[in-house]
Amino acid sequence: FNNPKILWCKETAPELGRKIQSDLSSEKMDLKVSVAAFILSTTSHSDLATRWGEGTGTTKETFAQNNVLFIEDDKAYLWKVFENLGEK
Predict the structure, then answer these.
(1) Fewest beta carbons within 10 Å, which of 13, 21, 23, 45?
(2) Which has the higher per-residue pLDDT, 39 or 58?
(3) Other C-beta atoms lying within 10 Å of the C-beta of residue 4
């Protein structure tokens, strides 16, 4: 999970949100801002898990912890996106 795109989603995007929030606070603006980013994979989890890293079968949960979500038939990835809307 050392990919620059993954790192941007996991680390840089929230950092940007904190910077924007700090700027708004210093300007005495009463607004709450949160920035989140995800990679939405059209490749199925089962296909990607066998090719990712050492091919050890990385779980969906581990991908999700690293902001990589899978667009699959059940659309469960949408819940992860919406859950993040309430985070600070």
Answers:
(1) 23
(2) 39
(3) 8
- Tokens representing 27? 């300007």
Calculate ∠ Cα 73-71-18, nearest 5°. 140
Fill in the amino acid letter for 4. Answer: P
Res 88 pLDDT > 50 = no
Q: What is the mean pLDDT of residues 22-44?
A: 91
Hey, what are 59's tokens? 């779980």
Tell me the C-alpha to C-alpha distance, in Å, between residue 81 and each of 8, 44, 50, 58, 84: 16, 18, 25, 20, 5
Quick check: helix, strand or coil at residue 33? coil
Q: What is the pTM of this model?
A: 0.78
The number of C-alpha atoms within 13 Å of 45 and in the hemisphere containing its C-beta is: 18
